[in-house]
Amino acid sequence: ARIGVLISGRGSNMAALVYAAKRADCPFEIVLVAANDPEAGGLALAEAEGIATWAQSHKGMKRAEFDALVDAQLRAARVDYVALAGYMRLLSPEFVTRWAGRMLNIHPSLLPKYKGLDTHERAIEAGDRVTGCSVHVVTAELDDGPVLGQTEVAIVAGDTPDTLAGRVLIAEHQLYSRVLADFVARETTPEWIVAKVGELAL
Ligand code: GRF
């Protein structure tokens, strides 16, 4: 399967997908890395790996207008599935519908806990002993789609949001490629996913 990855920053999850795709038995390849920030650190990394990149700032553009540009890039690259990897931008309903059932996201919490930002800070403040990361199918609601896989990460006494983020990131890098591989290799979309995502785009 052909994957387009959307990033906004350093792109370590994108890199983990790129490295996973190098294994002979991996059922996906990364064919495009697109960013809504030309300064995103992950772009140089993708270029060095010989992957096509596209970047443009979304500033001054309407959400749907910018997303249409991204969609045009994904189509031109004949992308089958979209992987959001630290893409820090809400997507327009049109874009979400266009990729319904074919777009995944990774989120640094055990969803449905701590949707949105500052997940590690919130987990520590709540006194949680365990947090983790989740990969889910993207729906119109933020961090709300069907969860495909999670990894738990223990919170250690003295953890700060930064130390915890560093350990959860290790788990993210392993989880994302595994879940994506299973997702693209499946023969049919399970009913429980269809029920939550609605009409699947083709
Ligand atoms: C990751 O923790 C991801 O879960 C979150 O933002 C971070 C992105 O990191 N949404 P990177 O750009 O993949 O290194």
TrEMBL record:
<feature type="binding site">
    <location>
        <begin position="11"/>
        <end position="13"/>
    </location>
    <ligand>
        <name>N(1)-(5-phospho-beta-D-ribosyl)glycinamide</name>
    </ligand>
</feature>
<keyword id="KW-0658">Purine biosynthesis</keyword>
<feature type="binding site">
    <location>
        <begin position="88"/>
        <end position="91"/>
    </location>
    <ligand>
        <name>(6R)-10-formyltetrahydrofolate</name>
    </ligand>
</feature>
<dbReference type="GO" id="GO:0004644">
    <property type="term" value="F:phosphoribosylglycinamide formyltransferase activity"/>
</dbReference>
<feature type="site" description="Raises pKa of active site His">
    <location>
        <position position="143"/>
    </location>
</feature>
<protein>
    <recommendedName>
        <fullName>Phosphoribosylglycinamide formyltransferase</fullName>
        <ecNumber>2.1.2.2</ecNumber>
    </recommendedName>
</protein>
<comment type="function">
    <text>Catalyzes the transfer of a formyl group from 10-formyltetrahydrofolate to 5-phospho-ribosyl-glycinamide (GAR), producing 5-phospho-ribosyl-N-formylglycinamide (FGAR) and tetrahydrofolate.</text>
</comment>
<feature type="domain" description="Formyl transferase N-terminal">
    <location>
        <begin position="2"/>
        <end position="180"/>
    </location>
</feature>
<feature type="binding site">
    <location>
        <position position="63"/>
    </location>
    <ligand>
        <name>(6R)-10-formyltetrahydrofolate</name>
    </ligand>
</feature>
<comment type="pathway">
    <text>Purine metabolism; IMP biosynthesis via de novo pathway; N(2)-formyl-N(1)-(5-phospho-D-ribosyl)glycinamide from N(1)-(5-phospho-D-ribosyl)glycinamide (10-formyl THF route): step 1/1.</text>
</comment>
<feature type="binding site">
    <location>
        <position position="105"/>
    </location>
    <ligand>
        <name>(6R)-10-formyltetrahydrofolate</name>
    </ligand>
</feature>
<keyword id="KW-0808">Transferase</keyword>
<feature type="active site" description="Proton donor">
    <location>
        <position position="107"/>
    </location>
</feature>
<comment type="similarity">
    <text>Belongs to the GART family.</text>
</comment>
